[in-house]
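**User:** Everyone, produce a chain:

**Assistant:**
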Amino acid sequence: MAGGHPAAPLALDTNPFLLLVTYRYLKSKNATALERMLALSDVRDQSDYVEPELFDDLWYIFENTKRRIITQHVIAEALKFSRPGWLQGHKDAVRDAAISLLDDFRVEEHSCPILDLHANGDYRKVLIALGYTDAGLLHTAERHKATLITEDTKLLSFAYARFVPAFPLSQLRALIAQSR
């Protein structure tokens, strides 16, 4: 598996970005650990169980990374609020928290024009296989030598094939251990 460390730039996919935004919002509202875990599990929207500490690990990595990168497509996808559940009832708060997170942590917002990806013969196949959001994020992570955090197994596979450092949320402890 490709590796990386928090000293490298960090590139965030949609789910990790939403989890970070929600985590920060809930911490600011002094939500209990149980309230945070329930809301974050709902936002994560996966069928497998993860330890509640996973969310703390994600925040730790985000907070202790020097450069944080996200693409405009990821932000747009995250804030379209198409999922039912906790996010639907907190749209305004999540949008405000997202803007605050981007600003307070100086997250670099990158554009990745679809036409540029399509014109790049190497990325045309990636664009078709992954779609514009994930292909653009992968291209941006590769270009900036960033470590990618995602739960998308297809995106992880393409990252590994292109030697882009990438970690699923379940492997964040390994990323933390590498940075120490």
Summary: The chain has a mean pLDDT of 90. The domain at 10-179 is CATH 3.40.50.1010 (Rossmann fold). The CA atoms of residues 89 and 97 lie 14 Å apart. The chain has ten helices and five strands.
